[in-house]
Amino acid sequence: MSDLVLQAEQLTKRYSDGLRDIEVLADLNLAMSAGEWVAVVGASGAGKSTLLNLLGGLDSPTSGVVKVDGRILSEMTDRERSYWRNQRLGFVFQMHHLLPEFSAIESVAMPARIGGSSKREAQSRAGDLLTQLGLSDRLSHRPAALSGGERQRVAIARALVNEPACVLMDEPTGNLDPDTAAQVLSAMATLKASATAFIVVTHDPIIANQMDRQCVLKAGQLEQP
Fold it and tell me: For the whole model, what pTM was predicted?
């Protein structure tokens, strides 16, 4: 298996508003290696969330391909793509999207259970991740009993429970106050030694400066260092 865990090749996305085609991304290229942390920055409306949706197989490109661990997402069936997303990709959004009836450890274990792990194995991995992210005393707490920063750390742990090749983050601190955002950033820093790659869409220069490299999305293209 290649050291490249995520690749976008000549990725183009157009939408039609009924009168004209709007090109959001144009022949965009990106390659990420195992363990690499990349920030994507750019003006609002530049297409950053569209890019993440394409990279995660949640949307289909107009042209071009996305490869995750060497496999082209568009060549898979819906079932294959869903399984590959579960196993090889993790997602963290601006909102934590935790289900209110599940505890922290149950929420984190859920993707592993969906992927076929036993309850014991899934909860063991979930507990380890939550402890690593400073939540060892919050395992049985439901979202209503957690702070905003704690909820987002649970969401990060959930994204990591299947040991994905890459985690896609869309403004992970966008809804947090500066002090809470700093706590989440500190928790993220504990993950830097893992083989998982991270691509983080952010407006926060503090987060962007923590990444291995920063890419600017502008006029449908990624300006890369």
Answer: 0.89
